[in-house]
Structures are given as structure tokens and as C-alpha cells.
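Lecture 7 notes: from sequence to structure.
We start with the chain below.
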Amino acid sequence: MAMEERVEQHSLILKGRGKLSVSGVVDVQNFDETLVSMETTLGLLLVRGNGLHIERLSLEGGELELEGEIDSMEYEENGQSRGGLFSRIFG
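Predicted C-alpha cells for the same chain:
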């Protein structure tokens, strides 16, 4: 599968710091009030924060809506952390 096709299947929409919509979700591996880890079409996505809860989940449609105070979003590949989005952009 070409990289362009995979990117189109996965997106993140963050509204403020309180609501996150994710598409391209394959599975939710773990969730609690401070961490939600999900497998996406682009790898493992970790969302950290406080008071996190899954508002809506549709694995058939590959969609997840998360609410709470979102502090960070981070992708991992092969179990190795690559750092947060801002560290990759500015680091």
C-alpha cells in the first residue's frame, strides 16, 4: 500500500484540548483516564491527558472520539517512542 493511501485513511482532529476525533483506528489496546493507546493504520498512537473518556468508538468504521483534557499525542513504531509531534517538527 502506498504511503499516500495510508495517510488518507488516518486523520486527527483536535478541537481545543478537549475533544479528539481519530479516523483509521484499527483497535483500542488500552484506555484509562490518563492514557488511551490505539492501533491506527499508521502505527500505535498514544494519547495522554486527564479525565479522558471514549465518547464514541466504531471499529467497523475505524473512528474514535475522545474527550477530556488532552496533553499529548505520540506515535510509536516497533515499540520504540519517536517523540511527540512538536519534538519531531522543532527538534
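Points to note: Confidence is low (pLDDT under 50) at residues 1-7. The helical segments are 3-8, 85-90.
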